[in-house]
Amino acid sequence: MAIARNIGILLLCAAFLSGCQQSPEKFFSADEKKLPLVIKEVYRDKEKSSHIILMNGSEKPHFHDRHGFDVLLVKGSNRLHFADRVQVLERDKPVRVEKGTLHWAENTGKDYSILSVSFYPPFDGKDRRFSD
CA 67, CA 64: separation in Å to the nearest integer? Predict the structure, then answer.
């Protein structure tokens, strides 16, 4: 039940971000749109934090040892790499990543991609361990 509620909240966030009232591009300046990676927190409570991420390149492979997360493609083309597979992200289809899972995201389009990510518990900005 909690997973369904959280996915519902994630989808509602994505609908808001991609809706006609507020396009996701408006969260980022023209200069930020040229950077490899920009992360902005858009919501936080005691159970989770939600972030909007603009990506031009790819992340380095890493783990979050204390945080799981749900990721949703809002704009563009992106794929999520794992140790044993690659998941092409699709709009309106959230992907769950459990804590302790090796992963990295990669923009695959000509233009930047935008992702909506919700971390459980709220992300502290420190729980990122890079892989060799």
Answer: 5
